[in-house]
């Protein structure tokens, strides 16, 4: 592991910044306290909401932690397709007795305001998803003392990350749960993504900066495998989704190991951008028709997903999960970090 990453997290274990209320301060603090790197997800929050969570996290740990930002998104190439999808979802709105969301609720996720907060009140680590920030942004964060990471799903994207001046790259394999961090404006869901071990090897040969491997990792032995392939650390999301401190809905946590949800699939059904989720009714019925329109579809379906959660109906929720979901362990996050480190040591 690179010297900087070793200083940030003694164990090569990074908790993925899962947006939507999962990566709460209590989870990030527990991971960091145990020697991993805990993360907050700024996605879908206001700049002030992000700042308040950072203050809360700082009250829980003095260890390094990270904050993840979503890059602003381009205009949707086919806005009419969003209207067609909204018409298709009318039955869902009626069923859950709610209104569809406003597809035009914003495309930048408050990016500039969040950056201003992070430059005025620097945090140890900042990562980026859905593209590459400008060199000016990365340089400004470096001057503030912040270590930066950017997600890539191909070796070509990893080279773009290095050229922009990021300190490290997150190599995200197709096995990963939640949103794929591809840089393409109109990413597809044709299952042509690169598997993690192959991706790590390709990225390691393509860039000179540290590599963090992400995608389907649930055990210390898998961390050993990606380290052997050339990674400096491993990022785990689904493994921490089931942790006691996770903010995930209890239905979501239970679904990870429920035999009813036998597999995952990349889908645009919930957000308009490829994301891996447990296959449920909503995904099966709407996935084939969802347009490539992020964050339009995310805004459109947000009230439906919230209503399904309130109704206790997991069949209408976005059950984000990686391919290793059946290996989830319901443990305190700190204990999970220690167990992963012990499994890693045994596998070496």
UniProtKB/TrEMBL annotation:
Its cofactor is FMN. The keyword Oxidoreductase applies. It catalyses: 3 propionate 3-nitronate + 3 O2 + H2O = 3 3-oxopropanoate + 2 nitrate + nitrite + H2O2 + 3 H(+). Keywords: Detoxification, Flavoprotein, FMN, Monooxygenase, Oxidoreductase. Pfam families: NMO. Signal peptide: none annotated. CDD domains: NPD_like (cd04730). Gene3D superfamilies: Aldolase class I. InterPro entries: Aldolase_TIM (IPR013785), NMO (IPR004136). The keyword Nucleotidyltransferase does not apply. One of its GO terms (molecular function) is monooxygenase activity. Belongs to the nitronate monooxygenase family. NMO class I subfamily. This is Propionate 3-nitronate monooxygenase. It comes from Streptomyces edwardsiae.
């Amino acid at each position: 592991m690179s010297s900087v990453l070793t200083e940030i997290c003694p164990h090569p274990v990074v908790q993925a910044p899962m947006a939507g209320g999962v990566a709460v301060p209590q989870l990030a603090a527990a991971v960091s306290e145990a020697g991993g790197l805990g993360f907050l997800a700024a996605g879908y929050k206001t700049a002030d909401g992000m700042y308040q969570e950072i203050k809360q996290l700082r009250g829980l740990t003095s260890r390094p932690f990270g904050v993840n930002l979503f890059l602003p998104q381009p205009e949707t190439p086919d806005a009419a397709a969003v209207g067609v999808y909204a018409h298709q979802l009318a039955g869902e709105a009626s069923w859950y007795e709610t209104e569809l969301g406003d597809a035009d609720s914003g495309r930048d996720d408050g990016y500039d305001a969040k950056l201003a907060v992070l430059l005025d009140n620097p945090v140890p680590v900042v990562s980026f998803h859905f593209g590459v920030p400008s060199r000016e942004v990365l340089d400004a964060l470096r001057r503030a003392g912040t270590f930066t990471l950017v997600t890539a799903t191909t070796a070509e994207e990893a080279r773009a990350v290095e050229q922009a001046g990021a300190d490290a790259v997150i190599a995200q394999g197709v096995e990963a749960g939640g949103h794929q961090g591809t840089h393409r404006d109109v990413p597809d869901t044709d299952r042509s993504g690169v598997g993690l071990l192959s991706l790590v090897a390709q990225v390691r040969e393509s860039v000179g900066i540290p590599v963090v491997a992400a995608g389907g990792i649930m055990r210390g032995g898998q961390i050993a495998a990606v380290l052997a392939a050339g990674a400096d650390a491993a990022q785990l999301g689904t493994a921490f989704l089931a942790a006691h401190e996770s903010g995930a809905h209890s239905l979501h946590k239970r679904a990870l190991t429920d035999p009813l949800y036998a597999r995952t699939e990349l889908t645009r059904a919930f957000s308009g951008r490829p994301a891996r989720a447990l296959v449920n009714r909503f995904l099966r019925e709407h996935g084939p028709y969802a347009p490539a329109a992020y964050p339009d579809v995310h805004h459109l379906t947000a009230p439906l997903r919230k209503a399904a959660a309130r109704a206790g109906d997991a069949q209408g929720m976005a059950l984000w999960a990686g391919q290793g979901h059946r290996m989830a362990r319901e443990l305190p996050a700190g204990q999970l970090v220690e167990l992963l480190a012990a499994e890693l040591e045994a596998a070496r």
